Structures are given as C-alpha cells and as structure tokens.
Structure to design on (512 residues):
C-alpha cells in the first residue's frame, strides 16, 4: 500500500483541481483587498507581512479549512460510496495505514495551496509596499537582494507555521470522515466545527487550541512564546488525533 | 402521483438521515457563546442598540453569515447522495413522474429543512435568552412577533440562495465541485454586502437583510435602507433561472 495508490483513488474525483481552484480563490483575496482598500494599509508603519496577514488571513484560512474538509470528506466518500472500503479491509494492510496515507496526501496538497498563497502575499508586499518610502524598505531596509532574502525567509517561516496550524484540521476532518459512512454527516459535523471556531473568542488559549480554530492563528506580531505554545499544541493534537483514529478503527473492526 | 404525495415520499427518505440532529446541534452551538458572553451586550451603547436587541441580532448574524448557508449545502449533499448511492434515483426516474416535479419536490424538502433549522434557532433563542435573563438579571426576551418577523425575513431572503445551491448539486455530478463551490461562495458574502451590487449575489441576501436590520436597530450606525426595486427583480430572476436549470438537468446524467 503506498501513496501512489491513494493518489490514483482520487485522480478522477476532481479533488486536485478543486483544491487548486480553491487555492486560487484564496490567492485572489489579498490582491483584491489591496486593490480596493490599499489606502487603508499603505500608511501603516509595521512589517508589511503583518499588515497583510492581519487584514486577510481570517478569510484565507477559512477558505483553506473549507478546502480541507471538503477534500477529506470526498477522500473517504470514494471509499464508502460503492463499498470499496470492504475490499480495503480484506487486503493484508492496516486500515490506519490508509488513513495516514490520506493524511499525507492531503497535507501535500495543503502545502501546495499554502505555497501559492505565500507567493501571492509576497507579490502583494512588493507591489504595494515596495515603493521608495513603503513599509517594505522601512522594515527590511538594506540592498534589494538582501531585503528580498529576508522576505523569503519570513515567508518560509510563515508557510511552515500556517502549515503546522492546518495539520490538526487535516487529521481531525479525516478522522470524522473515516468515522461516518454518509458524507453529509461528516460534512455537517465539520461545518458545525468550523462555525464554532469562528465564534471562539481569541483571548482564551484553552479555547483557541480547538483544532478548527488553530488555522486562524498568525505568527506575525504574536511573540515567540505564543508561537511556540501553539506549535506544541498543534503537535500534541496531531498525535492525539492519530492515536484516537488507530484506537477507533481497531474497536470498530473488532465490533464489526 | 400528485405533488403532495411526492413531497411525502421525499420526506420519508430522510427519516434515518440524522440531518435534524446536525441542524439541532448547529442551533444549540450558535447560542452557547452568546449566553456565556451575555454581559458584553451591555457595552454596545456606543452603537445605540439595546442589549436585548443586540443579543438577538448578533446570534442571527452568526447564523446568516455562515451556519445557515453551510447547513443548506450539507442538505443538498444529503438529498443528492441518499439517492445516488445504490442507484435509488434510477428507480425514481423509472416511475411515471415528470422529472421536473421530482426536482421541485426535492427543492421543497430543502426549503422544509431550512424552515426547521430557522425554527430550531428561534426556539433556542428563547431558551438561551431566558437563561441569559436569569444570569444577568435583565430582561433579554423580546416579543414573539418581532422575533418571528426577523426569522421570517431571514427565511424568505434565503430562497434564492437555496435555489442556487440546489442547482449546483443537481447540475454538477462530482460532489467535490458542488460542495466546494457552494461553501466557497459563502465566504465572499462579507465583501459583497458592502458593495453597491449586493443584489446580484444571492448568497449574501440573508446576511444583508440581518445586517440592515442591525443598522436600523442601532440608532448611531448609518442606516442601510433596503431598496426593494432592483433586489426583488434580481432575486426572482435568479431563483427562476436556478430552478429552471435544475429541473432541466435533473436526472440527465442517469438517463444517458
């Protein structure tokens, strides 16, 4: 059982073009926002990335999450739809292996989407804040190539951070999808969870580590302590959810 | 078969779907944060809105912005998938019933689900407002006539949106695209209600109506007058087109 097989399963479901299309939509958000309301942001003397993230990440991460939950539901829907899962369970492979391969595949797609978004953010930074007295020069300073290198470093860090924040959602939505035979139940549960996450007040750390609320976190302007705490929480959540999935599949199999 | 018995048949199909459980959970989840943060309602004097009105409108806004549209997308998945799995739809199409009627019956069922969800939400409003009144020792309950008028407005304004989602699920066979487009189209409604062309985007009607109501109740906010003229025309035309297209497309793929 390998990842190529999992890829083959989703090849004709349209998940990959769907994800890319969703990613493109997310890419357009900062571009549109800055085109329409640039005068609100250009005067701000704070790191340009922070400006963009604070203005747009809420919506972008919401889109990312919606992409993840739909893709997760679809990935298991292909298994359940014509009882294909029964064939998988009769093969000499572990069911949780399928789950982890799906998680790996979905994470890969998310990494691509996030990379697209980061490229868009960097383009916006250079276009709107890159002028003579823009925030880009004020913040990064120095010769152009060094400033660009620094920008790329920051972007990579943000990419990694956002990716880690998205991982719990990937694992949890796949867990929900694998638990429910009917797609609308898993989709409904996911949608309720996303909705809950939008209602959570950010000031409580204990509530903010709800897996579906994690992607709203940004590292820009958050302070190292908080960033590390959220990274640790994300890691623990992934481990716990993975363990829960293994346990769940074992129990379901023994009861079936 | 006349239309009423078709409706009864369609409703029976949903008996074991547990969709009402999901809708109910959403309604409960909606009001929990409002009850916990009920004291925040007293800090809204700057906008000039009374605490009890604020309590109601904030909850309805949360509903109209994401939860209600997203539940409707889940509902379309439910209606489409219950029949596509195991090819139940083939049996329905073999009956001497016009496909258009069948399609409209399903749309009516979706409207029924929407009505149930709004009623649940209104019921939960009364329970949570009573709890909040007890906790804060302040009367949060509003007269039923006013509350039901708001709920009714929300419902009527969502009809074009539901027709659009229904068209998506009928015309697009791959669920990932119908669900993905549906969910993704909810996110930009925040942007669209602020533009002059808001009436061209059916997905923002419910949110727009509630936001306008908020402006009306808050004496210090600028009032947004709902202009009925282009809106009603646009709404009727878009609903008509969506329903016509879905009736034409219904069952096309299966009959090939």
């Amino acid at each position: 059982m390998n990842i190529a097989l999992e890829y083959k399963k989703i090849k004709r479901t349209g998940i990959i073009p769907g994800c890319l299309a969703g990613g493109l939509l997310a890419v357009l958000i900062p571009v549109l926002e800055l085109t329409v309301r640039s005068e609100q942001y250009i005067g701000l003397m704070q790191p340009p990335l922070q400006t963009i993230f604070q203005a747009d990440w809420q919506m972008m991460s919401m889109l990312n999450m919606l992409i993840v939950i739909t893709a997760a539901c679809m990935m298991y829907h292909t298994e359940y739809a014509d009882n294909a899962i029964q064939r998988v369970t009769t093969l000499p492979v572990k069911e949780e292996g399928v789950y982890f391969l799906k998680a790996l595949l979905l994470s890969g797609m998310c990494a691509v989407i996030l990379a697209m978004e980061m490229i868009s953010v960097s383009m916006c930074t250079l276009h709107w804040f890159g002028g003579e007295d823009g925030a880009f020069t004020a913040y990064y300073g120095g010769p152009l190539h060094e400033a660009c290198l620094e920008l790329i470093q920051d972007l990579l860090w943000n990419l990694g951070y956002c990716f880690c924040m998205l991982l719990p959602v990937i694992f949890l939505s796949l867990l929900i999808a694998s638990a429910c035979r009917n797609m609308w139940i898993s989709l409904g549960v996911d949608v309720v969870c996303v909705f809950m996450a939008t209602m959570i007040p950010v000031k409580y750390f204990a509530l903010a580590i709800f897996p579906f609320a994690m992607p709203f976190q940004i590292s820009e302007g958050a302070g190292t302590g908080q960033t590390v705490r959220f990274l640790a929480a994300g890691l623990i959540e992934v481990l716990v959810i993975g363990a829960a999935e293994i346990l769940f599949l074992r129990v379901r199999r023994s009861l079936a | 078969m006349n239309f009423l018995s078709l409706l009864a048949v369609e409703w029976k199909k949903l008996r074991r779907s547990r969709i009402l459980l999901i809708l109910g959970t959403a309604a409960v989840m909606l009001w929990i944060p409002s009850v916990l943060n009920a004291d925040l309602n007293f800090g809204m004097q700057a906008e000039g809105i009374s605490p009890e009105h604020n309590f109601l409108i904030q909850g309805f806004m949360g509903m109209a912005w994401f939860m209600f549209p997203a539940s409707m997308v889940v509902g379309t998945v439910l209606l489409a998938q219950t029949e596509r799995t195991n090819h139940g739809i083939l049996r329905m199409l073999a009956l001497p019933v016009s496909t258009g009627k069948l399609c409209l019956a399903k749309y009516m069922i979706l409207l029924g689900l929407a009505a149930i969800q709004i009623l649940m939400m209104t019921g939960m409003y009364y329970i949570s407002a009573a709890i909040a009144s007890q906790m804060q020792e302040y009367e949060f309950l509003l007269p039923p006539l006013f509350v039901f008028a708001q709920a009714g407005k929300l419902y009527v304004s969502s009809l074009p949106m539901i027709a659009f989602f229904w068209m998506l699920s009928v015309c697009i066979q791959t669920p990932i695209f119908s669900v993905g487009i549906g969910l993704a189209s909810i996110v930009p409604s925040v942007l669209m209600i602020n533009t002059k062309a808001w009436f061209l985007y059916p997905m923002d009607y419910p949110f727009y109506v509630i936001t306008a109501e908020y402006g009306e109740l808050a004496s210090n906010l600028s009032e947004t007058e709902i202009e009925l003229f282009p809106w009603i025309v646009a709404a009727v035309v878009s609903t008509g087109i969506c329903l016509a297209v879905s009736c034409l497309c219904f069952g096309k793929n299966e009959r090939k």
In short: Chain B has twelve helices and no strands. The mean pLDDT of chain B is 86. Residues 133 and 240 of chain B are 44 Å apart (CA to CA).
